[in-house]
Design brief:
It is a single chain. 61% of the residues lie in helices and 14% in strands. It is of the alpha+beta class. It folds into 3 domains: 3-68; 83-137; 138-208, Nucleotide Exchange Factor Grpe, Chain A, domain 2 (Roll). A 3-stranded antiparallel sheet has the order 1-4-5. Strands 2-6-3 form a 3-stranded mixed sheet, covered by helices on one side. Helix 1 (8-101) runs antiparallel to helix 2.
C-alpha cells in the first residue's frame, strides 16, 4: 500500500513506529557505549591494582634482601671481631718467644722454643690467609699518613717522620669488605724533636683528633 492510499491515522501510526524503532536503536547504542565505558574503567582499575601489586612485591623483595644482608653482615662482623683477639694473641705469643730467646737467629734457640715459635707462626700465617679469603684485611699503617677513618690516634710524639704520619703502631686495625672493623691504634708523628714543640699543637688542631673513632673522620 502506497503512502497516498494510507489514511491519516495509518500514516501517523507508521511514523510513530519508525520513531520508536529509531529510539530503541539509539538506546541500544547508548547502552552498549555505557557498558564499554564501564569495562574500560574496570580494566584501568585492574591494571592499576596489578601495577601496585607488582611494585609492592618488588619492595618486599628488596626489603627482605636488605634484611638478609644486614643479618649476614652482623653475624660475620661479630664472628670476625672475635677472631681479631685470636690474631692479637698469636702476635703477642711470637713477641714473647722472641724476647725470651734474646737472639735474632732462630738456629741458636733451644729446640723446644724454636718449634713452639714456628708452630705459632704457622698458625698465625694460616689465620691471615683465612682472613684474606674472606676480605678481612689487616691495617699496619706505620709510616703512612694518619687517616681518622682508619686510625685511632692515642698519642702524638716527636719522630724523624714528617708530622702527621703514623710514627708508632700499638695495635693493628682491620677492615671487613672495605668497612672498618677495628681502627688501628697509633701514635702520630709531631715531626723532629726541634720542630715538635712548635708543630704538635697546630697538627692536633688540624684534625688529627687523638681519640678519633673509626669512620667519623671527614
Amino acid at each position: 500500500m502506497s503512502e497516498s492510499e494510507m489514511n491519516p491515522s495509518e500514516i501517523l501510526s507508521a511514523a510513530t513506529d519508525g520513531i520508536r524503532e529509531g529510539d530503541a536503536a539509539s538506546a541500544e547504542v547508548t547502552r552498549e557505549a555505557a557498558i564499554i565505558a564501564q569495562l574500560e574503567a574496570e580494566r584501568a582499575d585492574l591494571k592499576e591494582q596489578l601495577l601496585r601489586a607488582i611494585a609492592e612485591t618488588g619492595n618486599v623483595r628488596m626489603r627482605a634482601e636488605r634484611d638478609v644482608a644486614a643479618a649476614r653482615d652482623f653475624g660475620v662482623d661479630r664472628f670476625a671481631r672475635d677472631l681479631l683477639g685470636v690474631a692479637d694473641n698469636l702476635e703477642r705469643a711470637l713477641k714473647v718467644a722472641q724476647d725470651a730467646a734474646g737472639e735474632t737467629d732462630r738456629q741458636t734457640w733451644p729446640d723446644s722454643l724454636r718449634n713452639l715459635f714456628e708452630g705459632v707462626e704457622l698458625t698465625g700465617r694460616a689465620l691471615m690467609h683465612a682472613f684474606d679469603r674472606n676480605q678481612l684485611k689487616k691495617l699496619s699503617p706505620l709510616g703512612e699518613a694518619f687517616d681518622p677513618n682508619l686510625h685511632q690516634a692515642v698519642a702524638q710524639i716527636p719522630s724523624d717522620l714528617p708530622a702527621g704520619q703514623v710514627a708508632e703502631l700499638f695495635q693493628p686495625g682491620y677492615t671487613l669488605a672495605g668497612r672498618v672493623l677495628r681502627a688501628a691504634m697509633v701514635a702520630v708523628s709531631a715531626g723532629p724533636m726541634a720542630e715538635s714543640g712548635a708543630n704538635a699543637t697546630s697538627h692536633m688542631d688540624g684534625g688529627l683528633a687523638p681519640m678519633t673513632e673509626p669512620g667519623t673522620g671527614s
